[in-house]
Amino acid sequence: MLMPKFARWRQNGGFYVKQKMGFSEIVFVSICYIIIIFVCVVTLYPFIYLISASFSSATSVMKNEVVLYPKEFTTKAYRVVMEYKGIWLSYLNTIFYTLFGTLLSLTLTILAAYPLSKERWAPRKAMSLFIVFTMWFGGGMIPFYLVMRGLNLLDSRLGILLYPAISAFYVIIFRTHFQSLPASLEESANLEGANDAQILMKIIIPLSKPIMAAVALYYAVGRWNSYFWEMLL
Q1: C-alpha–C-alpha distance, residues 214 and 209, integer Å
Q2: Do 76 and 59 meet the contact criterion of CB atoms below 8 Å apart?
């Protein structure tokens, strides 16, 4: 239900009653609206400028004449981009690494987090500490390059897919989520003769779809925006 200007709805005995706002509340709401509008303008303006500049002539852009709408409307920039054959191969590579890289990362993250969530696995605390340690101290660019070269993964699709394949942070998130699931579900499945792989595929993963979607989104965005390490490899 939309709220009238400078009024609010409060529940009273099962009914919603409209009440007029006081002066202090009006000031507070007005300030909130001003802040929200300011944030929206600051957030959206770069995109508006980008679109306007793309349809403007190079001279207008160089003279900073483009503000909100295109100056000397032209589609030359888009024609130049479309005529460049390398752009399509670049997009295909990006889509390939994003899709398959995200799938690989999500699979490995789940497989790493699931055993860490089981108390019956003796080395789980040591392995958890080892994984968390990698979040505090990174190996650095040169050791990473030397490792990839030693594995003969330079200039290969497999190397680009594997280097960011798993994130310690997301492993911890999945482990915590798996630990929050009721243990009785797995106990019942064990009584029915299900093994760990069947429990993971048929019980744990279906119950973890929301967190899988969120982590997959972060993995995909990271893959899509990644540039430096691909140039290094």
Answers
A1: 9
A2: no
Cβ atoms within 10 A of the Cβ of 84, count?
A: 10
Strand ranges in 2-151 using DSSP code E only, listed in sequence order: 7-12, 15-20
d(CA 19, CA 17): 6
Q: What is the pTM of this model?
A: 0.70
Q: Are the C-beta atoms of residues 169 and 131 closer than 8 Å to each other?
A: no
Give the count of alpha carbons within 13 A of 161, CB side only. Answer: 16
Residues 6+ apart with CB under 8 A from 175: 113, 116, 117, 128
Which domains does the chain show, CATH number per domain? 7-82 (no CATH), 85-232 (1.10.3720.10)
Place of tokens 């019980």: 203
**Range from 40-49, 202-211, 222-231 carrying the lowest mean pLDDT:** 222-231
8 A C-beta contact, residue 156 and residue 93: no
pLDDT in tens, 195-216: 888 888 888 889 889 999 999 9
Backbone angles phi, psi at 79, to 5 degrees: -65, -40
pLDDT at 59 exceeding the cut of 50? yes
Helix axes 168-180, 209-225, angle to 10 degrees: 170
CA distance 210 to 217: 11
Placement of tokens 């699979």 in the chain: 107
Cβ neighbourhood burial of 115 (10 Å; 0-12, 13-18, 19+): middle
DSSP type of residue 2: P
Q: SS3 for 72?
A: coil
